[in-house]
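User: I'll paste a sequence; please echo it back and then give the predicted structure.

Assistant: Echoing your sequence first, then the prediction.
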Amino acid sequence: MIADLTVITGPMFAGKTSELIRRVREVVDLGEFTAVIVKPAMDSRFDQEAIVSHDGVAWRAIPVSEPGRIVDLVARAVGAADRPLHVFADEVQFLESPHFDGSFHLLVHALLREGHAVTCAGLDVDWRGMPFDVTARLLAMADHVVKLRARCTVSGAAASKTFRKHAGGPRIILGAADMYEARANAHWHVGAQDTVLPPALALRVIRRTQK
């Protein structure tokens, strides 16, 4: 039997990790599944061996950097339990090269085919508004999508974008409120944040593709 994939996504400060932990707790309390919780090894912002929400709620998790580690964890859990597994993964946007040596979405596909439910949480787009490849693939595969929004730090309106306070530099820089804010589209100002294409050039590309 192929199991279900659920993806929890949205900008920073939307409560993705809190929602993931809520679902982990629900699975553990019901006792119907054995929970396996993983996180990217490179994400050490709050705790190396726990997933931690921005409001301080934490749950122990295993840091991973390649598929084999997750396969071993699942095999060990299967051998020790007489219940089906539910695999949880936080901050999945980091589970791609160079921080993850392999294809996480292919591993998820294999887990689902083996009958193991999977729930993932992660950013859908980066601070420039460009999608993370691994999250996009998981969203395309998902049976259930939970799209959360944060609160814009400027207007208080619902926010779907992540704003980097200091534009430029590499795509991924680990940080929290010291470096990032949630913003509604009206206050995101991506034009000032190192856009992938200059606005005029982007319009020319769009016009050419529409011909």
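The mean pLDDT is 88. The chain has five helices and twelve strands.
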